[in-house]
């Protein structure tokens, strides 16, 4: 694997330095994902912008985490699944829902299951889900705006999940108790 540095505000390209400083201030530490993305300031900025925008969506914090976790697990991103497990706990998702998301099992809540199924379908089918899938999502109590808001989260997670695969991002210390191993890596272990 190509070695991508874990940048700091001192080693990052000039355009990434203020973004990293803001990230460190917001999180209380510099997440390794951000340190890796800093190699390409435009990628760091795009990810941060999309992540922040999805935080202002009409989804609740718990629903946002369902969308994020669905993408993370689908893409087999060990870094993001481990990290978003903590964020899902902070968003007050129950342990059974978090475990179901991590292990690809049906969610215990019907509305969250509909969100999970629709999000996964959008990713798997690259948006070609058909009217039936959209109507089922709407019937579960979601809106047409939310159909499109999901795309913001998928775009953010595509950037972070793929960057972690390409750059070999190590887990942050706060993820120690939520380590997740992708199914394709479980067989190898």
TrEMBL record:
MF (Gene Ontology): peroxiredoxin activity
Carboxymuconolactone decarboxylase-like domain span: 51-102
Protein name: Carboxymuconolactone decarboxylase-like domain-containing protein
Organism encoding this protein: Neoroseomonas lacus
Species classification: Bacteria, Pseudomonadati, Pseudomonadota, Alphaproteobacteria, Acetobacterales
């Amino acid at each position: 694997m190509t070695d991508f540095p874990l940048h700091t505000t001192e080693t990052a390209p000039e355009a990434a330095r203020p973004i990293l400083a803001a990230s460190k201030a917001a999180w209380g530490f510099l997440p390794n994902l951000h340190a890796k993305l800093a190699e390409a300031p435009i990628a760091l900025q795009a990810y941060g912008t999309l992540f922040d925008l999805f935080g202002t969506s009409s989804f609740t914090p718990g629903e946002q985490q369902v969308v994020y976790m669905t993408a993370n697990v689908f893409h087999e991103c060990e870094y993001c699944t481990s990290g978003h497990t903590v964020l899902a706990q902070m968003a007050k998702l129950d342990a059974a829902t978090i475990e179901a998301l991590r292990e690809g099992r049906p969610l215990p809540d019907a509305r969250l299951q509909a969100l999970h199924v629709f999000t996964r379908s959008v990713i798997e089918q690259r948006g070609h889900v058909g009217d039936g899938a959209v109507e089922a999502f709407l019937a579960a109590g979601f809106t047409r705006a939310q159909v499109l808001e999901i795309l913001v989260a998928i775009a953010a997670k595509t950037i972070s999940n793929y960057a972690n695969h390409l750059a070999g991002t190590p887990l942050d210390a706060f993820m120690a108790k939520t380590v997740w191993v992708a199914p394709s890596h479980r067989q190898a272990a």
